[in-house]
Amino acid sequence: MSLINAHIRTSKIWKTAGKLVVATAAAVAIFTTSACSFGLGGDNTQSSSASDTVNIAAIYPETGQYAEYGKLFKRGWELALDEVNADGGVQGKKLGIKYYDTQSDAKQDAAVAPKIVSDNSVIAVVGDYSSSASAAASPTFNQAKLVHYGFNNSATNFTDTGEYVWTPQITQATYQKLNADTVAKTAKKISVVYIENDWGKEAYNEFKEEAQKQGIDIAYESSYLADSTDLSPILIKARDAQPDAIVNIGYGPDGALVLNTLRNKLAWDGSFFGGQETSEFLNNAGKNAEGTIITGSFSATGVKTDEQKKFVEAFNKKYGYDPGNFEVTAYQAIKDLAYGANKTSATREGIQKALQTVTDFPLYQGNGGTFKFNQKTRRADNIEPILLIVKDGKFVRYDE
Amino acid sequence: MVDTLFSGLIHGSVYAIAAVGMSLIFGVTNVANFAQGSIVAVGMMIAWWLGTALGWGIVPTLAVVIIVTAALGFVMNFFVISPLEGRKPIAALLATIGVGQVLDNSLQLIFGTQTRQFPELLPTHNLQLGGLRFGTSDIVSIIVTVFLMFALWSFLKFGKTGQAIRATSQDPEAARQMGIPVRSIRNISFVIGAVLAGIAGVFVGLSNGNINPTNGGSIGMTAFVAATIGGLGSIPGAVVGGLVLGVVEALGVSWLGDGAHDFITFGALLLILIIRPQGLLFNSSSAVRSEPMTGTFLENSRSIELPRWVNWLLAGLAILLPFVANNALAGAGTQVAIYSIAAVGLTLISGSAGQTILGMAGPFATGAYTSAILVTQFGWSFWAGLLMGGLVAAITASILTFPVWKLSGHYVAIATIGVGAVTVAIIRLWEPVTHGSLGIQGIPVPQIFGAALDTQQKLLLLDVIILLIALWAVSRIHKSHLGHVFAAVGADQDAAEALGIRSNAYKALAYAIAAFFAGLAGALLAHQYTYIDPTIFNSAMSTLILTIIVLGGMNSPLGAVIGSALLIGLPEVLRFASTWRGIVYGILLIIIILFRPQGLWSRSVAQAKIGKNDDKATENIQEDAQTVAEEVEA
């Protein structure tokens, strides 16, 4: 018995030694990898005053399922950046953009936000594509007093996170009021299908409220999931309700799917309000898009001011096509932040102060001119939505 | 109504054609191929390119698609699947997830990111029935499906190779002894499965119209559901399953609206599995009989055990980390810690009790929502919300999963996908309480004794402490009598039953414990993000949580931390790779699993090869003797 015990004891010692080696190796490996990739120690990275470049951090989907929008954003940003630096940068310093691919995935936004905060050369953050991804990063930026400029995040409560969270997006209340008023002019009875996410839900609630005020009868309504491939079951019901018009609140690809299903599969030729001001929508809907009316914030062919025209021309020269809604809002985000920094200082405090005090940010959307922020809601106050119609495969302004 | 029914049938025929390949691969190779949907997307995108850029017709397009996908199937089996033969099938499953990653990201890199129209290789809307137009494409699709079904059936029944395939699937060892070249038979099966996926891709493209290179994941998931409804391994079952799913979805969506689409799809899956546990067309001769995901005699692995003082040392270092970490490391650290907490419980149910769970996003979301609602709407404290998050997650997961345990093998794993998806679908639909798609905003950050945890370092400290408690608790359970019972259930369910152990009750208990920790993790995440909505808790999250413990080592609580650090940390470390990030990530995943199929933090104990591993076997016996000795001493 004691022999066995002795044997067990010896083998135990050896085993312990072996395990110790494994454990030490593992611990060392974990700590060195983390130290290498993230850096241990404090956050006193390069100080911004010493460097002659200040940066805006862009959190956006470069890869993943939303990559198409990331690509459009990047085109707008790059053009704006070129122009800002050609005009002498911000307060004599060169402006740069630091790109962070998040795939618009909340978990990656949360992981990358602290990294951005500790980079002292970053004076503001733009992005992300979706509200849920943006919102996962907002608290971190707000706590660090770094402006989070969610230029694509139109959700009503997006800026509620704190005083450093801003968006120039027009609220859905404004958009959908115009949308419903326009529909009411030609239709008394409608069917509505809308995308099932935070944006679509809110947009539809606003639309419904205004439509009811206008006395429109909503004969059928249904949401749809963004990844549904066959919308016939709801569109058959939408069609069979015999509406004067069918309204769709959604994005480009799903808007094209709704329209194509209605026209090609269900042989329905009534009037259609919906889709999205993107080439993706036009390319996918093709001829079916003709005559479609949507409420947007920008039309490349319907621009009014010289600044707007210069932007469209420069964009077309650089990329070979007319910019759409996503490109212009991204472009404008960089231009506005640079404009603000030039009025105050090229620092984090400067950006925040600019958003609070500057009242003439250049506006490229809508009718052009300038806009300012509502200090209570931290949203753009005076951007007017505009109506667009598809003619000859292009969006043009619809002015009756 | 007639229109709806008919449109359901047409859409169902597309599900059917995708499900046939899925069912075949599952049936004959016993590998749950998570890359199958991505191969469908490969076929679809190649056909798109040939049809639009080169203007080719349907026949040459199909020919090229068949050649390319055949090559892909061969390469995939040769380099990734066949080296894992004889290992736990879960390793192969993980490898296919890696392959899917590589394929999806490559397609996006090659073909661009935008959604586009599939070329009209065949007329798609030239015929009409009632108020519904359809096309030659739909008719050809149905003919091709039926043809493939009969061709495959007769090939498997009468063809020499076909018979060899069936023999191999039933018992590879016996087949080898009968002189069947098992290796080439496996290659052939994979090639056939991939070609079927490629052909399906062409018809899926024709039917959907709107296509995107990233469609593979959702196509694969619906094909999987359709194949399961029909009865896995049954080719006619796959066709029936596809049609049934198409019609059920059409009628359900027509009735409840498309917002309830997921609820209907996965609800139908659960319902059918509960009523007919082996699928609609199960018959004992054609369907899968062995249980690939629970394979027990192939190989076993044990967690690498560290001496107690090393554990204390590591715990000490972990506690120290928040005090020395900068923002970036602490930020990534919080995510690693939260996902470790979510995964650690799976070592009990999936590791010990041997039941793969694919729907952990369900309890994770339940925990997040419970805590968020209690704290924001009812003014509960953070701690109370956190604890309730765990409890409610455990309770609802147990109730929803209750009917599932009577199923067996991988049907349970698939049912858990359904439970996870249905949970999130209910959260989305239950608007008065959860705010549905609008999400919950303004969830307060954790408060401890009145102090808000408002920096990454403070949050990390909280997460690390809860992680350590979770690790300690789960390790204790592993070593307790209860843990041994779980292990007994996992090692040999029949033997366990013979000893009077009610194995299903113990599996349910192990799952409830796992759900409790996932709920805690969800609550922590909600209070860190301060905003949650249903899109956060998607199927990718479920897959990630399972992948974490497979990579770390199924039995090893510490492995969950290592797996989480790798899977969450890698994408951050790989930022230099830019657009190649997803591809590099997938390749690394495959390489890791090829070198350590048993997981990073466990060592394999190959029972079948005990002769070769005498040292290890002796070591195990010693270890057991030691435990007994210690128990006697105490």
From TrEMBL, chain A:
InterPro entries: BCAA_transport, Leu-bd, Leu_Ile_Val-bd, Peripla_BP_I. It comes from the Bacteria. Keywords: Amino-acid transport, Signal, Transport. Residues 53-380 form the Leucine-binding protein domain. Gene3D superfamilies: 3.40.50.2300. GO terms for biological process: amino acid transport. Transmembrane segments: none annotated. Belongs to the leucine-binding protein family. This is ABC transporter substrate-binding protein.
TrEMBL record, chain B:
It is a multi-pass membrane protein. Gene3D superfamilies: ABC transporter involved in vitamin B12 uptake, BtuC. It is found in: Cell membrane. The keyword Magnesium does not apply. GO terms for cellular component: plasma membrane. It holds the Pfam family BPD_transp_2. Coiled coil: none annotated. Its main location: membrane. One of its GO terms (molecular function) is branched-chain amino acid transmembrane transporter activity. InterPro entries: ABC_BtuC-like, ABC_transp_permease, LivM-like. The keyword Transcription does not apply. Keywords: Cell membrane, Membrane, Transmembrane, Transmembrane helix. The chain crosses the membrane at residues 6-27, 34-51, 57-80, 92-111, 131-156, 188-207, 219-248, 255-275, 309-329, 336-360, 380-404, 411-430, 459-475, 508-532, 544-570, 582-601. This is ABC transporter permease. It comes from Alloscardovia theropitheci.
